[in-house]
Task: structure prediction
Amino acid sequence: MATADIGARIERARATAGLSQRALADATGISQSTLSRIISGDRAAKMPELVAIAWETGQTVAQLTGTGAVSERVQCAARATNGSDMSDMRQALLDFLELDAYLDDQAIPATI
Amino acid sequence: MSAEAEGRAAAERFRSQQNLGVQPLGDLVAIIEQATGIDVAILDADQDQHGLMMRDPQRDAVFIGVACTRNPMRQRSTLAHELGHVLFADVTDSTAGGWSHRSPEEIRADAFARHLLIPIEGLRQFLGERGSLTQSVLSETVQRFLVSPKIAAIALYQAEYIDDATKQEWLSLTTPQLATRFGWSDQYRALQDESARRRAPQRLLARAVRAYAEGALSIQAIATLRGITRQEAETELREAGVVPCERPVVWADPTELPDVEVDLAALDEALNTPDHTPEPPDTTTRERE
Result:
């Protein structure tokens, strides 16, 4: 897992959660300069930092590190026009699948 | 069997398995979620991304996503189309792109969607014996089955209510035109508001809320799923009586620890026992190492 890739994923998670870099730094207790270096790929994130970032952005550690592997095995069928590559929707559904897999790992039963 | 016939047969099978009769279907999202256990989400996406079905083969989890749109009839047909892909276990190579390609699978899923939304038999029950049809009947059909005029016209043609020329003429009509002309534009606007609204996948959200209550998921995860702010999510959950349970860590004071008797005799004995090797250790070699 390349540091730059993880940085990019953290940046996407931050944007999805609608948090400013400052707000994410405050919430995780990571200094803003460190967070900024992690996002730009200059510094690798340590595991406790990843866990804190995952919690505050509402993502899973697997999503941030790209170790979820769901994206490599999923199968899709789509309806699109004008040659759309479906990237937004693909990403949204991948997030659902990753979260669903995480809830499995946490032994959270389905309620309905 | 042609793609059209396959799609129709599957739609009839689905309706009969789910006891849906031949009546118009109401909330398609809920019907799909309850009938198949598949989670459905209505998402913000650009207008060329109509719908996507995604399956994780390892865990056999399936999600369907459709785009928020001001075109409610198209959203319904996309939902039904994606359900068709699920039932036929259609898979597109996700790396190849080219989602707009009209493959036999796409034609079959379209036929499935059409026959699911407006079964010929249901149309016959609704219209009974009729002579030549006017556009007001097309409007009634569109309003009743909540399908586009195009889909309604094809169904009317297949049920032999109209001829090919009339079908061709009606294919170009739009739902807003019919709704305005025949007085149900308020209902159409309500349908538009509904189809333009985001909707989180219900089962996943329910499970996530449970994980939040158990302290295994953060409030932000719920907020992201719902597409609302953290504060809104927190307020909503608190008002519903859902608060994360506290799992305090109990730290013991070292003085409170019980005295433990440790019998080291057995260890001493083991350490004092000579090695089992029959020959005495060669100390010279060991030193050289």
In short: The longest strand of chain A covers residues 75-80. Chain A touches chain B through 43 residues (CB under 8 Å). DSSP finds seven helices and one strand in chain A.
